[in-house]
Amino acid sequence: MNAARIMGAEWRRFAAHPVYRWIVLALGLLLLASAIWTGHGVRGYRAEVTALQAQWSVSYEKAVTAAAKHPAANRAEGAKAALVAHALGRGELAPTRLPATGALVLGLQQYQILPTAVRGTVESRYTDGRVTGPLTNPWLSRTGLPGFPAIIVLLVPLAALALTAGVVQEDREQGIWRLVCAQCNVGLGRVFAMALALRWAVVFGVAALCSACAFALDAGAAWVLFAQWLFALGVFTAFWVLAGGALSLLPISSGAALIGALGLWLTLTFAVPAALAWKAERETPMPSRLAAIVELRAVQQDAEEREAELLRAWYARHPGDQPGMGMAPSQPTWPVTFMPRFDELERRMRPLMREFERARVAQSVHAEKDAWLSPPLALMLLADRLAGIDAQRHARYMEAVDQFEDRWRGFFMPRIMAYRGATAIDLADLPVFEQREAAQIDQVAPQKAMPWQLLLSCAVVAILAILGRSALVRP
């Protein structure tokens, strides 16, 4: 009996099983619904990015049109020019955005939760609590429907285990296993391997088709990244099929095998990732947010008390930006008096705030090293990397935002402090995020998104299944 005939016989047995048909149907419907939902969400996200870019162009044109043609020439014009320049510097002309990759469907929820559209300002992002977008419920925004990769991680293992765990025990309990052994002339191991291969092909095929649907709904999808996702998904599915096959070889009932499969799913999906997160937190603890708030308030208080000193020090460091004769009022007023305070706040608070990003990156590195212990965690980390929302890339984005904001502040601050304002000619040289900093987000060659953790996990469980194949001859 050749492999094709064995596979054909197994397919007929599989298709005739009513429970198996319902499992595959439920898996397909749920994954397809999640894929369509995510695909439409990605379309909306990309449309929003395009709309914001168009809005920026309109705002920029309005600013150029309304800008003065010449620098301020007297005290009244200077005071007004400083106010206008400050309004432009803290307005809508400094948007930044983390560029989405061609696998946005694998990380849409993270793009919506993490800060991926930070607006630069001449003031301070650390103390500006204004909500620039629509009001939302923070809790609901973080606990909404899980993303497409999360649905894959939750449902594919359950389907694979339900189709494989207890396969041998079920035949034994029905009393047909002796007949299978008597009629088999090619070795029970080969028949068992074909049964597992068929179940892998069914589960992987359903997940792959739904993934293709999600990617097809994204106009900016990159099919190279889709191929990498399919490879990882195939290895992930193989792990759970092999795990279910190994459980079916144990000398226990089919009900006990299914309970063991459920316990394995709960352990690898929830318990092990929680343990790895706890370990990463212990090795690289996150800075105290309460301590950061206390430090922020202390820096604000100190800068406010030293306002006059900081103003004199700034002019001393920038003698070329001293107000011209007859331009400055007798007593400096807002916003000139506040700008050195914001500069001081940025200088002292930025290193502290960057510690949070460094800790998050370090914790992610620790989690990636041990991710082979939890295939669901490994697949989620891979999905984030393919989507471009992994901790390392996001940290580079935040560094790029800081560098852009330095350029932004360097453009507007001298024009505010000198009471000369920003003319239409000056706005032609307005810093734009995409011109320089966006390129550095991916300047570090990204690690190849090869699911070696998944391969290692799959190899371990395959060895266990091979070692236990002798249980097949037990009647």
Describe the structure.
This protein is mostly helical and 475 residues long. It has one domain. Helices cover 70% and strands 0% of the residues. The protein contains 19 helices and no strands. Helix 2 (18-66) runs parallel beside helix 9 and helix 9 (188-216) runs antiparallel to helix 10. The longest helix has 49 residues, at 18-66. Residues 131-135, 138-143 and 444-449 have low confidence and may be disordered.
Structural category is mainly alpha
- In total, the number of strands is 0
Shape: elongated
| Proportion of residues in β-strands | under 5%
Radius of gyration: 30 Å
Order of helices and strands: HHHHHHHHHHHHHHHHHHH
N- and C-termini, Cα separation:
22 Å
Name its key features.
19 helices; mainly alpha
Blueprint of the fold:
Blueprint: H1 3-16, H2 18-66, H3 75-89, H4 108-113, H5 138-142, H6 148-164, H7 167-174, H8 177-183, H9 188-216, H10 223-248, H11 254-283, H12 289-305, H13 307-317, H14 339-369, H15 375-387, H16 391-417, H17 424-427, H18 433-440, H19 452-467
Helix pairs in contact: 1-9, 2-6, 2-9, 3-16, 6-9, 6-10, 6-11, 6-15, 9-10, 10-11, 10-15, 10-19, 11-14, 12-14, 13-14, 14-16, 16-18
